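Researcher: Re-running this chain for the archive, since the previous output was lost when a drive failed. Same request as before.
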Amino acid sequence: MALLFKNTSKTISKIDEFINKVEDCLMLYREAIKNYLDNKPEQMADRLRMLEREENKADRLQRSVENYFLKHSLLPQHAADILMLLDHLDDMVDLAKYGLQQIEIELPEIPETYRIDYLKLTEISLEAAQEAIMGTRAFFLHPQMAKNHAHKIYFFEKETDQVANVLRKRIFQEPNGLHLSHKSQLRYFTRHIEQISDSAEDVADALALLTVKISL
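Model: Regenerated structure tokens:
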């Protein structure tokens, strides 16, 4: 990260650390979902505790970056948009943590017939999140390259919506013998996973706006 912050190595370092923590949290989320789908709720809970600790570190780093921007008046014409970009990145972690916390509380029973669907949904939603991470990294190095990642985020977000809708239709329309309350619980489980890609789309919007502004 050098292009936008040539003389502020401390800012570069803190932003990079923050992005690393976001990435760590989402990797833990992926493993936690896999643990749960493999009927290993204790391991999922362990991953959740790890994610919570990493999320706290990410929050501290984010606040440090915000304070540094304000204290040193860095890029005043773009500071608000850059901080909003980082905030959207953090939102992905917040949603991942919240989703796992709800799973830990509710312990939804996932029928084996839908296990592969949930794995697929998780992977595609996290593809959008990964592109959001890569796009944010790219922005601070070569801003115009962030456009490519934003395009991929939009693609994976739409794919996530399609996979989620197919899964919901299967849950509610197939003769699976599930009670309506169970189907509703599975719908919310689906939505928790899907929301991560929605948050990644917010990152894409922020990247698109910033790349336009800095080119003016």
